[in-house]
């Protein structure tokens, strides 16, 4: 069955084997296509369309509007603002490219390259997104701050290796667990009064990680399509819900980091 001039769509059993990752999404799979064919899929209905647009539309907004919401002239540590901007944009770009070209006629080789790109984007938001948090939490402790930044970067390098070599969504989600624990240690420092930062940022960061975790759990649980296979083939399936939660999670990251960067600019560390 074709939609708005699109090609004949496939069912789960006849789709390429490397794309059979959700047995509860029964129809709407795109056939193998050239690069131009993948681009044309932006204009007809298939089961990846929602996945493309739930990150594609926010991506455009983040690329053009996010810089306007960062008070560059009032931030003293400029590289943290640049890192934060990349953390918000890169994962969404990787996801759009992955979902847009995943049915490329190059087959599994192209697919796994795109999956690696997508996982690198996820790692970037986990890595680059946390650097301003760590910096501001240890704003008055330069040596521990530098050590923590290096340690988190090394841990993130290990996480991306685990993520790109994982063979299931559960293992991919587990690959980022150590990064999450590292961040939560710094959240604890703030909560206990042992770390520094803007008073409102901790709440934003906790909501951020909560939404990201919820999205990951929904994605691996295949809810709601698990309950009614075939009904959510095109809209409101678990992966699309996860995308929406990730976008909202990034917004909370943005609000928390901007508050922190303005705070660290005006904060004077106590004199020993």
UniProtKB/TrEMBL annotation:
GO function term, MF aspect, one: metal ion binding
Membrane-spanning segments: 52-70, 77-101, 113-135, 147-170, 205-221, 241-264
Any single biological process term in GO: protein stabilization
Protein's UniProt keywords contain Membrane: yes
UniProt subcellular location: Membrane
Family: Belongs to the ADIPOR family.
Protein name, per record: Progestin and adipoQ receptor family member 4
Source organism of the structure: Gopherus evgoodei (Goodes thornscrub tortoise)
């Amino acid at each position: 069955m074709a939609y708005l001039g699109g090609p004949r769509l496939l069912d789960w059993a006849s789709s390429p084997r490397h794309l059979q990752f959700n047995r509860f999404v029964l129809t709407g799979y795109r056939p193998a296509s050239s690069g131009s064919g993948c681009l044309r899929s932006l204009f007809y209905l298939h089961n990846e369309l929602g996945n493309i647009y739930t990150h594609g539309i926010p991506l455009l907004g983040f690329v053009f509007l996010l810089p306007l919401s960062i008070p560059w002239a009032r931030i003293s540590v400029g590289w943290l603002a640049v890192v934060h901007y990349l953390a918000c944009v890169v994962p969404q770009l990787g996801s759009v490219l992955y979902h847009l070209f995943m049915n490329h006629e190059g087959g599994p080789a192209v697919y796994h390259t795109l999956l690696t790109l997508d996982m690198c984007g996820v790692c970037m938001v986990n890595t680059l997104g946390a650097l301003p948090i760590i910096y501001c939490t240890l704003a008055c402790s330069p040596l521990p701050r530098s050590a923590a930044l290096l340690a988190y970067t090394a841990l993130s390098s290990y996480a991306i290796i685990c993520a790109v070599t994982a063979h299931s969504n559960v293992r991919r989600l587990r690959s980022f667990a150590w990064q999450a624990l590292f961040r939560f240690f710094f959240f604890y420092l703030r909560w206990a009064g042992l770390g520094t930062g803007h008073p409102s940022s901790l709440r934003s960061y906790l909501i951020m990680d909560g939404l990201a975790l919820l999205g990951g759990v929904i994605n691996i649980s295949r809810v709601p399509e698990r309950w009614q296979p075939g009904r959510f083939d095109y809209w409101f399936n678990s992966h699309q819900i996860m995308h929406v939660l990730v976008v909202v999670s990034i917004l909370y990251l943005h609000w928390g980091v901007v508050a922190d960067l303005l705070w660290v600019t005006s904060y004077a560390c106590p004199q020993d």
